[in-house]
Amino acid sequence: LHPSHLGTAGTVGAKLGLSLLAAVVSYVVVEQPVRRGWPHGRVAPALGAFGMMVAATALVVGTRGALPPAPSAPTDGLPPHVAGAPVVWVAGDSVALSLAANLHDDPARFGVNPLERTQLGCTVVGADRPMRSFAGDPIAPPPCATRALEGIDAVRPDVVVLWVGSRPNDAIEVDGRWVRACDPAFDDAHREATAELARRLQASGAQVVISTVLRSGARSLPVAGSEERIACVNRAIGEAADLVEGAVVIDPNELLCPDDAPCVESLAGGPVRSDGLHLDRGPGGAQVAAWMIEQALGSTANASLAPDLQARLAAIPERTLAWLDRVTTLAQGVEMDDEGLRYWGERLVLGDARVAVAEALVSSEAWRHQRVVEAHRRWLGTDPDEATERRWTSWLATHTTSELDLALATSEEGEAASGTTHRERAQHLADALALPEAAVDHFEARLDRGVEWDTVVRDGYFSLPASDQRMVGLAPSSPYTPPTEQLIAEFRTTGDERAPLVQALATTP
């Protein structure tokens, strides 16, 4: 329920400047991060309550297997210290940064004191080796080890989570040969490099947890062979952990991409990886972060998170929770789950506007899914099969609701579903648009005159009576709801009902 751009309220001592330039087919990421860390847990007394460690500025130029723009870094500031909680050191690339951002947004919820030590676009297997991008361009990404090990002996964290999550599509040179994941030479190099970094991290006394690479999300840039290379690298990660006594592997694919099924795109009512790679900052990404931390810390985390969630829900006013359930049901046909209630309930209590909730609901995959199913039933008289539903749900992310309706209504299947006589088709169209009997006569007369079905549908769809019916049905009216005429004008301008729906939901009593 929370697209990644809807708020960056978390705190971590990190600033990140980022610009992206396209070069040939690959992305070239130009990053100049300025990062600051802070002491937590057992090192705080030694370094002072407000002591900070300042890292040197680094310039990084590279491409990492079709890497989309990295997630925004959390804002500067000293986060609240969670008394008695373990210090969790998050190392890796920009995917690890997206995990750290969620932890820093709400450390108390996860029961950890997070420290972020990531390097955007970094590599483990390619350190000190020539590399080429998936497009064949020479690249020189920074080694993950530099940032991952920076200051670790002074801090001595309890747990290190190492996550190099970018898809392994780049090539390295081994013994004069260019190889990619699934070539034994690459896989051997990956295993040894990962094991060596794990040993160096473990030397700090921390429990080392290595995460596998997530399979590609729905919005990942398609690269041939990605899924096979991900599987090979994940096997190498498991083998690397076997070489380091005490190292643990966690596999977030168990949560998001189980049993070779399409990856889950939303959790807790919010998107998980809007760009197909990085965790969103919001309920969806936070749910993944919670799962990973539970796996990393073991059963103690499982025991501590659930009571905390219920306690925090109990602190949110009942009327706020009821409103969240009401608008979620209106938008998506189901009540909001506990994770979403906690997240948005606390945001509303802290002063976020209701329109932020409405925007998140209407921009979610769950809303698009519900809208596709409803349109398919209305125009074709059936529920879509799974493949059809996925295709139209993805399509609707970049198209308007009117384009969806008209595409279905004027398709061969839609025309066939409307009936065989002009009267049947006119009745079908009027029912789909929730128009009275007079509209049936009007549509039938036009069809009798030889007007094409596509034209009759389009004219009827954008008619004032049909637009009025559509806007009236968006959400319950209240003294605060914008006038229907205003909503109609916006719909007729954009051809999309999402913006009017946001206004209607935000003003729902």
Question: What this model shows, in words?
Answer:
Strand 10 and strand 11 (177-179) form a beta hairpin. The model is unreliable at 1-70, 72-80 and 299-307 (pLDDT under 50). The relative contact order is 0.09. The protein has 2 domains: 14-308, Rossmann fold; 365-506, serine acetyltransferase, domain 1. With 509 residues, the chain is an alpha/beta fold. The strands form 4 sheets. The protein has a 5-stranded parallel sheet, sandwiched between helices. Strands 1, 2, 3 and 4 form a 4-stranded antiparallel sheet that branches. Strands 8-7-10-11 form a 4-stranded antiparallel sheet, with helices on one face. The radius of gyration is 26 Å and the shape is elongated. It is 47% helix and 13% strand. The protein starts with 13 loop residues before the first strand and ends with a helix.
Please give the radius of gyration in angstroms.
26 Å
Using DSSP, what is the number of strands? Answer: 15
CATH class assignment of the largest domain:
Alpha Beta
Question: Judging from the principal axes of the Cα atoms, what is the shape?
Answer: elongated
| SS class | alpha/beta
Side by side, the strands of the main sheet go 6-5-9-12-13
Distance between the termini: 20 Å
Q: Which whole number gives the mean pLDDT?
A: 80
Count up the domains.
2
- CATH fold call of the largest domain: Rossmann fold
CATH superfamily of the largest domain: SGNH hydrolase
Tell me what the CATH architecture of the largest domain is. Answer: 3-Layer(aba) Sandwich
The number of distinct helices, counting runs of at least 4 residues, comes to 23
Low-confidence stretches: 1-70, 72-80, 299-307
Estimate the helix proportion, in percent.
40-55%
Strand content: 5-15%
- Profile the largest sheet: 5 strands, parallel
